[in-house]
Structure formats: C-alpha cells, structure tokens
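Notebook p. 47: complex prediction with FE2/S2 (inorganic) cluster.
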Amino acid sequence: MSDAVRDDAASPGHRDDLPHGARVVQELLDAETRPVPAVLRAVGDAAAQTWGVPRARYTSRAVHEREEAKVWRRVWQMACREEQIPEVGDSVLYGAPGISLVVVRCGPDDIRAFHNSCLHRGTRLRTQPGRIGELRCPFHGFTWNLDGTFAGMPCPWDFPQVDPTTFCLPQARLGRWGGFVFVTVDPEVPSLEDYLEILPEHFATWDLGDRYLSAHVVRVVPCNWKVAL
Ligand code: FES
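Predicted complex, structure tokens below:
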C-alpha cells in the first residue's frame, strides 16, 4: 500500500486528525450493516484545499495548448474496453487534443495502437471504428498489415526511398489492466503499472476484468473538458 494512503482510519482513535469530509465518510461506513472492505477505509493524506480557479483556465487558447503538451501527451488514457474489439481486425478510434490513434486487435491476444496518420502525406487512415483486414490509406492506397508492418503501395517504383521492411506504422504505447486498454503517446512516461499505482490493489475485491461494457453513452457537450469532467 502506498505511503500516501493510511489504512488505519477505521480506528476511532485516529479520526480526530482527519479532514471533516473523510471523517464523515468513516462515520457512514460505521453505519453499514454489511462488512466494509478494508480498502474503503483507506484515507489519503493529500491536503484538502480549495481555491478560486481563474476563468482563463477554461477559455484561454494558451492554456489549452499547455494542456495538450503537458497533460494529454504525457499521461496514460483509457482508450477502450477489450471486449469492444473481441475479434482480430476489430478497431476503435481514440482521440484527444493533438492525438488520433487507431486501436486494433491484430492477434487473439495482441492489441496495438497506431498513430492515425498515413506515412505518405498524413491522411487519416481511419475515420470510423469497425472490423478491418488491413490499414489502407484512402488517399493513394498505401497499406499496412494489422500489425503495422508495411503491406504495399500502388506504385512502388515512384518511391525508391521507401524500405518496405522498415516502413512500419508508428505505435503509441499500450497497456492493459482489468479489461481496460490504455494508451499513451509519451515514450518516457512510467509504465502503466507504475501509473496505476495503488488502483489494482484497491480494486482487488472487484475484478473489473470480469465485467463488460453493456452501454456506452456519448454526448458532445459545448464546453471546456474540465467543466464536463
Ligand atoms: S496520403 Fe496516404 S497514401 Fe498518400
């Protein structure tokens, strides 16, 4: 268990120093008639602070660009559930500011995330999810196999500089946990296992890998993503 999380909160003797909100949660758990998993008693030690947020954080182009560079390009993001792409060739699209990926099941237990950009002129390879046999650019027909290796082009004599053995689609990093597929475009960010930190331990009682997606509701909301969140 992380140093940042205390698991002794169930002990009434330790409650006086808890923030008000954490104390209330503990009291609600006390009132539970069923056994409470120990993990739900854990209390983080991050300081609870509130302060005003400048309006520009939600409206400024400069802030958006900083978020694109320092948030979206530097974190692990959940792209889909594994059961959304159960068969070889199934694919989904994942996008975030400045990022467009095609997540493909290219083998029974092999899922990869490719940058959704043709290596010829940058055309988007895919605009829709669905089952595919290959990744074929709609512009001039450069084509890649499901594993990202180059499959061919209509007129190879025009491209003597292309070495078909190395002309592979660039991949984002991909990690899997609990049936979720995560991606990151940052080659330096720590592994997904490190990034999830204590989460798998907290969910040990509830096996998310044993669950499935039964409904997926999407709505475009005309607001800054932080407001929607
Ligand atoms: S842009 Fe994709 S083949 Fe030309």
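Notes: The first strand starts at residue 5 and ends at 6. Residues 5-44 form one domain.
Next step: compare against the earlier run before touching the bench.
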